[in-house]
Amino acid sequence: VAHIHCEEVFGILGENYTFPVKINKSLVEIIWKKNKDKVAEWDEQSQAVYFTSLKNRGSLNNETGSLTIFNLEENDTATYVLEYLPFDENSVSLTFILTVLDPPSEPTISCNVSDDNLVLMCAADFKRPLTYSWDFGRITDYKQQQNVVFLKKNVDVSEKVTCLIEVSQTAKSSEFSLAECFP
């Protein structure tokens, strides 16, 4: 019975990306293909060999089967297939659809004034979920939900807050002065 494994994954332009593979078996042979072309190959008799676009940018882990691509480029967006042969078993293949995305933009913070709250919203241009964190300096009274923060209106407007966004190995932040809420 052939098990079909297909996973959509993404990496960020310029970062290093390692496919999420963990094989807990003794491997005899590993072949990675990109859109049906072989890009990396290893067998127990020899060192790993890299082809085409991964010639100087690939690293194969022959213990786990995972492949790392260094310094992702746009044309690394492709379908990758890992074929591996465990000792004493039939070969297995895993498919990964890799999308290389531009890094997120610098976050921007906007402020709305409601009845007795300041509502700060942090936003960045990115096609996937981001992790948001905030630094409030000396402010202690706030409510945070991901990229939105509620502050009491009587807060010291000379304070600054910082929004930090993170995805993969990329982090960016922006600082915002609460005085900007009251033009």
Automatic annotation (TrEMBL):
One of its GO terms (cellular component) is cell surface. Transmembrane segments: none annotated. This is Lymphocyte function-associated antigen 3. The lineage of its organism: Eukaryota, Metazoa, Chordata, Craniata, Vertebrata. SUPFAM superfamilies: Immunoglobulin. Keywords: Glycoprotein, Membrane, Signal. It comes from Tinamus guttatus. One of its GO terms (molecular function) is signaling receptor binding. It is found in: Membrane. InterPro entries: CD2/SLAM_rcpt, Ig-like_dom_sf, Ig-like_fold.
